[in-house]
Amino acid sequence: MRRIFVAFVAFTLLLPSISFASIATVKDVARIQGMRDTALVGYGLVSGLAGTGDSSHFVSTSQSLRSLLRSFDVNVDDADVRSRNVAAVMITANIPSFAEPGDKIDIRVSAIGDARSLAGGTLLLSPLKAPNGTSYALAQGQITVGGYRFEQDQNVVAKNHVTVGTITRGATVERSIEGSLFDDDGAINIVLNAPDISLMENIASALEQQFPRFKVARKHAGKIKVSGSGLSLRDLAQIEQLKVHTTEFARIVVNERSGVIVSGADIPVSRVVISHGAISLKIRSIPRVSQPNNFLIESQSNAETVVIRETEIDVDEGQQAVYINKDETTIAEVVSSLRKLNIPTRDIISILEGLKQSGALYADIIVQ
Questions:
Q1: Which of 111, 160, 278, 342 fits a disulfide with 147 by CB distance 3.0 to 4.6 angstroms?
Q2: Span of the secretion signal (predicted)?
Q3: What is the rounded distance in angstroms from the CA atom of residue 76 to the CA atom of residue 65?
Q4: Domain that includes residue 289, residue range
Q5: 61-65 contacts at long range (C-beta below 8 A, 24 or more positions apart)
Q6: pTM of the full predicted structure?
Q7: Domain for residue 119, yes or no?
Q8: Quick check: is 5 in a domain?
Q9: Do 75 and 103 sit in the same domain of this protein?
Q10: Same domain as 270, residue 210
Q11: Confidence of residue 41 (pLDDT cuts 50, 70, 90)
Q12: Within 13 A of 297's CA, how many CA atoms are on the CB side?
């Protein structure tokens, strides 16, 4: 009876460590070598812009527009192409392995000229090529821009980057991507999404326990080779669904274009002092007209009207905000405290990067 009681106490003591263990499938933390994305890139034109496209100084857009119109038997002179409703863009996308003709993929569009905004534009049909020069997809569609830009009388109101946009399912695959999951000897290689010795050992041990008829070889911290006679696609499906104990990675994802910060709330932060002071520089230019010929000054033949600009410079250091963290805390508490100090998101991004460099933040920062 005493042994049963001791075993029960030992089991209850282990419950906290078990509850904090993260369990995932092999498919969540690794991939089969041969399953990878291929980068595609293309050049195209965006039309339908409300005067925010490329100017005539960007010759590439004019040349592309003339070539496009001539392909439709419309002959125009160089001087007639002056529309600012068109912009030249670069198109990027990733096509997955084993993609078949007719599949849809997402694309990203970015201006390469002096266009001011791509909002409301439509991407014209453009081929997407791989590094080997082969076209694998065709892209077109309405662009979605995560921001805005309004101009009136040289006054500008803008939010985020409006010269970059996306088109969900905006490209159609026209050529399949060939790939191979098996080596010449019939073996497969499991590649971890992030090399980690502990995670590699957990996966290898689970494979040896679940599939004793296969040989599991530990290549390095990010690669495991599985070999054996009769290894098939059905076995690969079972391997992908195999559950393993994973190592949690502390990461902070930052999108500088939109100012979005995503991270786990329990990432630890050591004792730190943060001092924030914003410097605002304002330069105002006021035109003054000097008119020499008036009723007080005798008219002179060599006198002329001159516009003189008076410049006023104002520097405002703003109110300095100080945050002191005496004890170890989490990233959620730090960000919440910085918010209460009215520190903008983009400054918080800089603060997080400074915390990482100072060694007070135990996480990887991924900037998109």
A1: 160
A2: 1-21
A3: 10
A4: 280-316
A5: 61/86, 61/87, 61/88, 61/113, 64/88
A6: 0.62
A7: yes
A8: no
A9: yes
A10: no
A11: very high
A12: 10
Which class for 316: exposed (0-12), middle (13-18), buried (19 or more C-beta within 10 A)? exposed
Digit-coded pLDDT (tens) for 86-145: 999 999 999 988 889 999 999 999 999 888 888 889 999 999 999 989 999 999 999 988
Stronger pLDDT, 136 or 153, i.e. the higher one: 136
168 within domain boundaries: yes
108, 142, 173 — which closes off a domain? 173
| Closest listed residue to residue 42, CA positions, set 168, 143, 134 | 134
% of the chain beyond a pLDDT of 70:
72
Assign 3-class secondary structure to the chain.
Answer: CHHHHHHHHHHHHHHHHHHHCEEEEHHHHEEECCCCCEEEEEEEEEECCCCCCCCCCCHHHHHHHHHHHHHCCCCCCHHHCCCCCCEEEEEEEEECCCCCCCCEEEEEEEECCCCCCCCCCEEEEEEEECCCCCEEEEEEEECECCCEEEEECCEEEEECCCCEEEEEEEEEECCCCCCCCCCCCCCEEEEECCCCHHHHHHHHHHHHHHCCCCEEEEEECCEEEEECCCCCHHHHHHHHCCEEEECCCCEEEEECCCCEEEECCCCEECCEEEEECCCEEEEEEEEEEECCCCCCCCCCCCCCCEEEEEEEEEEECCCCEEEEECCCEEHHHHHHHHHHCCCCHHHHHHHHHHHHHHCCECCEEEEC
Question: Which amino acid does the sequence have at 144?
Answer: T
